Here is the input.
Amino acid sequence: MSKQSIALNRFGYGMRHSETAPSVLVRDPRRFLLNQLERYDPSPRLIADNIGKSGQGAQLIEMLRRGRQTRRSARRSAAMTMDDGAIAGTASERDQLASANLDTNAPEYVEARKRARRAYRSAVADRINVAVMSDTPFAERLVHFWSNHFSVSVENLGSQYEVAQHEFAAIRPHVLGKFPDLLKAAVLHPAMLIYLDQYRSIGPNSPFHYSRKRRGKRNETLRQRGLNENLAREILELHTLGVDGGYSQADVTEFARALTGWTLEGLARFPGYSESHGQGTAFIDVTHEIGPRHILGRKYSPGGAEQALAILDDLAAHPSTARFIATKFARHFAGDAPPEPLVKRLEQDFVRTGGDLASLTETLIAAPEAWRPGPAKYRQPHEWMISALRIAGVERLRDYRLFMSLNEIGQLPWRAPSPAGYDDFEASWAGPDALFRRVELAERIAHNSPSERVVERAQQAFPSALSDHTRLWLERAESGTQALALLLVSPEMMRR
Amino acid sequence: MIVNHDTRIDRRRLLAGSALFGAGTLAAPRMTFARAPGEKNLLFVLLRGAADGLALLAPVGDPALPGLRRAAMAEYESAQRADGFFAIHPALSEVGKAFTAGDALFVHATATAYRERSHFDGQNLLETGAQVPYGVKDGWLNRLVAMTPTKAGGMPPKALAIAPTIPLALQGKAPASSYAPSALPDASDDLIERVSRLYADDTQLSGLWNQALETRAMASDDTLRNLRDAKAAGELTASLMRGEARARIAMIELDGWDTHANQRGRFPRQARQLDTLLGAYRIAMGDAWKSTMVLVATEFGRTARFNGTNGTDHGTAGVALVLGGAIRGGKVIADWPGLGENQLHEGRDLRPTIALESVLAGAAAEHLGVDPQDAMRRLFPGRETAALSGFVRT
Here is the structure.
């Protein structure tokens, strides 16, 4: 691959249909990328206009709680016993209604579910369309990288409204900012608090629990209203230190205690005690576990909301975090097994700058290992889709079509199978059926796209990097449409 | 058959008729792994969402059952009895027939090492074979592919997921393919032909592409758009596991088992779907059924007691099913823990008494001719329990 083709495809999402190579790309591919960082738009109109208000997730959760309460009191008055059951954190939305003992077919819930799904679909479409139309596609790739690092999911009812907010308000503003800020914004956002069950984690020795015990409510629902370690564990394992980063189960539990109190704004439980932290996040002092915490050999004095924030800052500055982030970042651009010198350089940069992500990105751009000529990565379905739509010249695909297409090729945003996000290894994506589906979709995209000058466009999109073999088969196509379909699934499009 | 709900039974109720428990009492492996390799098929059916084992195979002989699930008892009044103690859910008629024919067996009160109640982690553990969620990156079924013996000079066994992407259980170093009918319009033959030529120079892409074409050519029905029709899905799976180029190790998933409410409406639908799939698969396999084993498992069981909306919440032990033309079926393997208040796990769930890992490793190893202890070590590392035996007719 030429340097120009690497800048366009490995770093960015490829060239757009109507684009011609700017002179800076020809002259200085590194500068071409740096320019994109300078022009990066953290709040694109398309998303800003559609994003809606925050807090809708909490509203939905409140609706469930109210419904549950109504039914519970009705049942109590009928003097029946019931098994409240643990309300699963990661069941499907329908099951969450069911596990809350609510009638899943009640019109208000059916309607609420439908609305939530629509909100999610349109958020997916907006995300893709912004990347398809962007003239800073490298920066959009960074957004998607960090968003995946702090992966949230629509698995939980209520989160359909929050996932796009998460990317817009917690990820986008920080992708060229400081990692500690990104970390705090991302893990304390409602989408994450819902996804990893943090919003209902309550300190076993919090003032709230004491008061309940005094009122003799010990047996009733306390067993499910305690500490939840989910978020604490994932922050350590997935967001900062990494699984071998040197923390213990005791650190997880201590951190979980420190995180108690961080929850959603707008939950009706403790209105008088809720202290807003913006973006729909609140800290509720009475559910916070009182006392000092000991984590990774450091002591944190009692301090309400500040306690968890101080721990997060320290985690961001931990050497294991620098190593973990550097490895992941390098992997995304320089191959599944990234060269050690590159990882080392990124790690040192991260340590030296205190996690300055603009500096980290510039170090990546400067690194020779990121510019090695052979393709470094197999494109994942999501990035293939964006690149295909860009080069095909599709302007604004309908929400539903876009959504279904991504679903069929196997990678919907905000639907990663685990909090680890979609993984970044070829083995997960280079599958036979997955490849066949791309061919099916490519033909469909080609039928709905401008089909002139395909060979010329291919040469521009992969400057000095289009193989003679591919060019030959594009030229031999029986129509422009067929040539475009072939281009979309060419080896040049499958890897970067 | 008359079932006396008041029958007093031993807590240790060994229905298998063979010593199964603990390394000390384990029957010596009968060197079944020495027989001619390379001819067997294995299908793993993963029930996602935690299928209710106490409904699939109801312990109607347990005196505590009516107290826990009064609303469900009527369903089993005329249901097929697996024996004097267990009744097969009426929706499982095909499974019942296979059971009568000696082609199916149940394992009850079984669970993986997982003792929490998240679907997510439970499935991760069941698929990776790890002892803690996310402890292992590849799947046990993939590791099994690598262990499966082949005829001298033969190709390694083909592994296939009947799914759009390869599920975790089948991910790993051993090559695996995937196929599922898609809702995308079929690519034109001309384009397919040209893509073959476009990829001719590219080892990786031509490899993937040829595998995809091969799998598609094997698929019996290309009018399917998804896998929702259970009969079609069963027949499709069989069509991919017959003949020369067939997949020998395959996996299919059925979701929707998370029956928190109105279980009597939803559970039979789920069970019927599973039953239809297994029945259609068994028939469509034809003669190859003799050399086929089907393992059916779920991430964990459900609460013993019905909740306030006649559903069940996430529990612990449940049921696994083994089917096949050469299995020693017609029995229930269980060390019944009882459903009494003080017998339940944490006062709410069926207590696990058989490690599901030992069932999966033991059954697969016996069937495929792999050393069972080796299978246990590599598929489910770190377990103290040994692989179970006695699944296959000798």
